[in-house]
Amino acid sequence: MRIVETMQKADWRTIISRATGVALLLAGVLLAAGLCVASPQDNSVTSIFDSHSTPADSIRHLSFFVLGVTGLIFLVVFSLLTYVVVKFRSRAADKDREPAQVYGSTQIELAWTIIPILIVVVLFLATARVIHAIQGRAQAC
After folding, report:
1. How distant, in Å, are the alpha carbons of 13, 46, 50, 54, 78 from that of 43?
2. Model pTM?
3. Could you tell me the CA-to-CA distances from 136 to 93, 129, 130 in Å, in that order?
């Protein structure tokens, strides 16, 4: 009888902890959406999204490019993380089994070293091009 009661308490704890996690995640998403939507109408602060000059316009295009690159990185990492969490989650059948031990993969290590370097180089070159163009126009005046 006590085993059943203990299992029922453990099940409720699991359900409550999962519901709390989902509620916190939903609250965070709603808060972020609310902050994105809510903006003051009479804002005296300058914004890169409301460009009135050629340099501001090129900076706006650069910021959209960087935002696109970082958004793509977020989607790839989030998708891979979700896949790994779902595929390799703990199961009752695997409780006494140890997973296969893998001690390195040269291809994966090269990929997670070279790809970030390439991303940083592309972002650096795009930023340097915009800065050079803005400084060139400022010196011509």
Report:
1. 47, 8, 11, 22, 34
2. 0.60
3. 66, 10, 10
